[in-house]
Queue: 2 jobs
Job 1
Amino acid sequence: MNIKELQKRFEIPGLVSLTDGSGDLPMLWVDTQWSVAEIYLHGAQVATFQKKNEPALLFLSEESRFEEGQAIRGGVPVILPWFGARDGDMAHGFARVKDWELKATSAGKDGSAQVVLRLPDSPEMAKWPTPFAAEYAVTVGKTLKLELRIENLSKERELVLEECLHTYFEVGEIGSVSIAGLKGVEYLDKVGGSAKKTETNEVIRIASEVDRVYMDTTGDVEIRDAKLKRSIRVKKEGSQSTVVWNPWIEKAKAMADFGDEEYLKMVCVESGNVGRNKLTIAPGKNATMTVELVTEKIS
Ligand code: TA6
């Protein structure tokens, strides 16, 4: 469908409109009484979310590319069906560089807006050992709610894959941020050669490159930002892994689609099912991972 057909079929006057976004990529603009958001069909990526009278909740790199075949650097990349590096393939799966199909838009009774997208068929999908479908519902309102539903389309074989909502959060200054909710959780320290460690700190602070995959953890995580005077609660269901990442100076410089100083203004707290927490779905069954981002002002 071209943009005009999409507009005709999916726009909701005063709530959801469709336009050509950055790089002329089709983008949904959602404007509710509490918040605004930009959702690209490319990667089904929520690129921005901001509550009215609050700073942006999601970080979006000023150097991000908006072009076919490239992931948008920021917002909420949808990582599927693998997490991390993979021999001969792009990192973090192919879902984030596919143009997802827009399935539905709707207005909630509370004034929120919901957008539902579906991962399209593709040669990469056809190569996956077990056929699956992925549907993603984004609800924009007082909070940002993300629901990723994976269905095993096989009647005989188990579906095994990894998934992650790789959320980039905007922060006032990384030195003023603390992350709570992971004490006692085992993690792979990817900066330390994927050594297995256990989190001993009540709160995590970031003063160098951090790249940790916390495992077997289903709890909420709180990001407290003393500079922006807000806390962000990352609530999740159906997710066993939490990843915390900040590239710091050298990695920031090495990324062409990320500003050298932008590591100061972001942190990733990602919710997924990766590594030993990878998803295994029985034939004909499905699994939904839900992430809800809730903010509140702090003194
Ligand atoms: O989630 C953290 C991580 O796996 C880091 O290792 C880093 O590679 C980051 O994702 C970004 O990956 P990308 O492929 O988007 O550059």
Job 2
Amino acid sequence: MINKLLIANRGEIAVRIIRACAEMGIRSLEGGVRSVAIYTDADRCALHVKKADEAYSLGPDPVAGYLNAHRIVNLAVETGCTAIHPGYGFLSENPQLAEICAQRRIRFVGPSADVIRRMGDKTEARRSMIEAGVPVIPGSNGNLDNLEDALQQAQQIGYPVMLKATTGGGGRGIRRCDSADDLKRNYDRVISEVSKAFGNADVFLEKCIVNPVHIEVQILADSHGNVIHLFERDCSIQRRNQKLIEIAPSPQLSGEQRQMIGELAVKAAKAVNYENAGTVEFLMDAEGSFYFMEMNTRLQVEHTVSEEITGIDIVKEQIRIASGKTLGYRQEDVKRRGFAMQFRINAEDPKNGFLPSFGRITRYYSPGGPGIRTDSAIYAGYEIPPNFDSMCAKLTVWAGTWEELIQRAFRALKDTRMDGVKTTIPYYQEILKSSGFRSARFDTSYVETHPELIEYSSKPNRHDVAVALAAVVVAHAGL
Ligand code: ADP
Ligand code: ADP
Ligand code: MG
């Protein structure tokens, strides 16, 4: 039984997991789950520290504590925790944490170390999927040996190709190459970038699917061999291969395609004996064919949209699965209702190259009303530390129809106040106004090819110009 859980993470996802524990905490219902937070000095005033039942400091370095698997597992043992939830990012896809947990008899809320290792390596994952009969994006035969090998394999695949980091994540370590010259220019640069970012220099090639739709399927798999899916998410609204807006279900799929992709994802998960929550990511080309891209062996940032359309709490399910329980329902019991859309609200300035905008939140109002959900780690007076990701809140909106969803999302973004830092909220309002998006026709190139969005992010707004002018006037007046 899991009755005390350590959360090896911070920010909104730590708060999200604490909430699940709190709701499982009525003893007569679930046996109770006590939550334990960890934090570093930069996070002394963080919301997850305030909200957890217990919180322990991991020292002065802002980041190191969150990455120290041995120390975290020791702490779990010392404080009487029976499980660790890794959230996303940090150690969530590090097989070592899962392995140490297994050795110390702590339940890891996720798949086994073996599965994490196998699926975390993108060329290994491709191999497993080919074996299982799941269509994968055409690409190189494993990792590349050197530039000559890359050039030769790219020739066979056909340009444009994608040069990708084998252990990459978060949209980094991916470069499109349109010609042999392009590949020559990028090869060493990408290797040096990815070795710094991921501590691993392995790269491989994939055919570039031109302007694809990103479709991914949420999976739940228990330890008794039951695997179901919670339908798909459309994550095509991206900037630099990073997701900005995620939608469930995809408004771009037919019912037939929806059923097919769900079945493919279940097949993929079964093929690797997957356990716990996971996501199988696919790209869909212009002909409507699906190709496996990668599997994320953890809870994803955008899990909220699947929760909103199915009414299933994925985090609670993760904890139940990790404690050995059987899924309480079959595929045909999972019903889908309406549409949901999530906005990653980042503390970034969309009018200034999306530059991070860290600092104190002077005023905060999160929207409410029908169909609105916020998952955030901020409050008025909170100082966003510069050491972490710039995502500080997620706004998830649900509505019965696509049209109503767009209207409601616009209203909710307008209602949100987050003063003191620049945010991506006004940029999302521009996306909602753009006609291609409203008519549910978009691919991964959307925000980088639509003139109104390019123009928006290249023009300082009137308020900024006014403030800059006022500063000049003040400076000239010698005040
Ligand atoms: P999702 O797949 O859930 O949509 P992202 O790809 O945006 O989420 O990743 C979620 C978080 O995890 C981000 O903070 C990202 O920077 C981080 N992350 C993901 N993969 C890696 C990785 N391989 N190495 C380091 N950080 C990662
Ligand atoms: P990460 O691990 O960083 O999430 P992915 O392999 O999932 O990396 O790719 C992230 C994004 O990069 C995709 O959603 C897509 O927009 C783009 N991308 C990756 N591979 C390809 C490809 N072969 N063709 C076209 N776009 C791709
Ligand atoms: Mg991905």
